[in-house]
Amino acid sequence: MNKYFDINVQGYSIRCKLYYNKDLHNHTDVVIATYGFGGNKDNKAIEKFADRITTKYKGYVVVTFDWPCHGMDARNQLIADECMLYMDMVVNYCREELKAERIYNYSSSFGAYITLRYIQEKGSNPFDRTAFRCAAIKMYDALAQGISEDDWNKLNKGKEILRGHERKIKVTKEFLDDIREHDVAAYDYMEYADDIIMIHGTKDEAVPISVAEEFSENNIIELYPVQNADHPFSNPDYMDFAIQKMIEFFRK
What we know:
Blueprint: E1 2-9, E2 12-19, E3 27-34, H1 44-56, E4 59-65, H2 80-96, E5 102-108, H3 110-122, E6 129-133, H4 139-144, H5 149-156, E7 161-164, E8 168-171, H6 173-181, E9 196-201, H7 209-219, E10 222-226, H8 236-250
Parallel strand pairs: 3-4, 3-5, 5-6, 6-9, 9-10
Antiparallel strand pairs: 1-2, 2-4, 7-8
Helix pairs in contact: 2-3
């Protein structure tokens, strides 16, 4: 089962979706799930994960939300700091309103980049366990590789370009400069390594698995390579494997 709701704080309105099994109030564990650049809270991979964990195990609910400028969000300029502010507000909501005893994080691609940056800039990890699938460790590289020469010319002239999938997002040079300057691969996450796993496809065309391997080795984080899986894990069998690994880790 699921329901939509908004978190209204400090003039922001975060559009959220909550997955639960029958009794909404009988839970102890909340998973915050985030997705890749240009997606939205109705993400099918998150829905599959949420259905699996909430129907099979008691006490779990899953919360996902629209990043700034994504889905039904009302903002029109993408700013990384506001993405982290949204994450912080959702974490606080899970703790204070949903009364979560434990909070987990399942993030993929752009969502994983924001989560890593959020942890680093807070100086602490609010998540009991974190699982990354196809993490965009080098977020700048992932975005920059698909920008045409004409679009680079527009960016350099101070103009916006459009990127994304379901909803086209306005991207500025300021945003790209910001994520280039905040390279999460340059930070140390060894303090949190025992509470993080990574799952990555060997055929990931957006974020090469070599990037994930280097990051996991530098931070002693367990990495599960999935042979022949692409960036979105479009093969259902590979997605099932990833979901099972994440659930096992959260329930450990």
